[in-house]
Design a protein that fits this description.
Hypothetical Protein Pfu-838710-001, eight-stranded antiparallel β-barrel, 2 helices, about 10% helix, CYTH-like_dom_sf, CYTH domain-containing protein, CYTH_domain, NeuTTM/CthTTM-like
Length: about 160
């Protein structure tokens, strides 16, 4: 079984931008979301993946599968209408780990979230100055919920 172990934070300011080592644009939509389980379709960099994520907080089950790009594009359009997001993901190294800083587009413009994937749930994490409020486990900020949002969450 695959396990995703990550913590998520709102981002304050732009101080992270000077350390970016790479970026890519992501489009993703949700085929299903129920009781904390989500089935996501993502297109990025000319490739497509289907991801199934289970319930959890810092650690949760995750399974990923490659998809043909043309089929994924069609599914994003026909099956994920009203349940999709677009964002640019920036890679930012900090204290030996690489943070992923997502800058959202469209109705979520202005929302910036940083994620850090960890080797274990108890792995120590040094927080950069731009890491604001922790939102790990806050359902309002899950990408599955944001995909249906008409504006960023408040508070």
């Amino acid at each position: 079984m695959g396990i995703e172990i990550e913590r998520r934070f709102l981002v304050r300011g732009d101080d992270w931008r000077h350390a970016v080592t790479g970026e890519r644009r992501l489009r993703q939509g949700y085929l299903a979301r129920e009781d904390g389980v989500a089935v996501r379709l993502r297109v990025a960099g000319g490739a497509a993946r289907l991801t199934i994520k289970g319930r959890g907080g810092v650690a949760r089950p995750e399974y990923e599968y490659d998809l043909p790009l043309a089929e994924a594009e069609e599914m994003l359009t026909t099956l994920c209408s009203g349940r999709s997001i677009a964002k640019t993901r920036h890679l930012v190294p900090y204290e030996g780990l690489t943070w992923e800083v997502d800058v959202f587009e469209g109705p979520l413009a202005g929302l910036v979230i940083a994620e850090i994937e960890l080797p274990s749930p108890d792995h120590p994490v040094g927080l950069p100055s731009w890491a604001g409020q922790e939102i790990t486990g806050d359902a309002r900020y899950s990408n599955a919920v944001l995909a249906s949002a008409k504006a960023p969450p408040r508070g």
